[in-house]
Amino acid sequence: MAKVSVFNIEGEQVGDIELNDGVFAANVNEHLIHKAVVHYLAERRQGTKGTKTRAEVRGGGRKPWRQKGTGHARQGSIRSPQWKGGGVVFAPKARDYSFKMNKKEKMAALRAIFTQKVNDGKFIVVDNLAIEEAKTKQLVRVLENLKAAKALVVTANDEKIERAGKNLPTVKTANVRTINAFDMLKFDNVVVDKALVSKIEEVYA
Predict the structure, then answer these.
(1) Which pTM does this prediction carry?
(2) What is the pLDDT of residue 205?
């Protein structure tokens, strides 16, 4: 079984923990990882942008001037794309960018990323991840001790840690069930309370 060190909030090693190979020693499928990231980003897209084509723009039903004899270039409508106020040639339209991804594929992608983090020494387990007050500087100090300034911090709805991490652009907090592929790859380290490791193994096995 995979084994990682356990640290306290001072950054000192206080023991080891064995990890479930089904989650932390899985097959690393880069195609699935990429698909999971694209799926997450596609789900976040609002898809509300849209402009009008020449068929949808108001006006322009009459030919602005006769075909020949005016000295102007021939024109059929004042709502053609080259005119101010005209329609857009290949107009973007409101659409849904999301696509279906099977639950088994999502889980396999997350297991692959967990495995990568463990192999790279970026999966950091803390024996008791807690701070006295919901202060940003306290969380920063803990992460500096762990050498994990850019981190995804997995909590069990710890309000103090969640509030302390809100002002940090290099830190994001997540519940065990809200971990996603994009955040795991965006942040270098995954910092987890020791008590939640078994919960991760239960959810993602």
Answers:
(1) 0.81
(2) 85
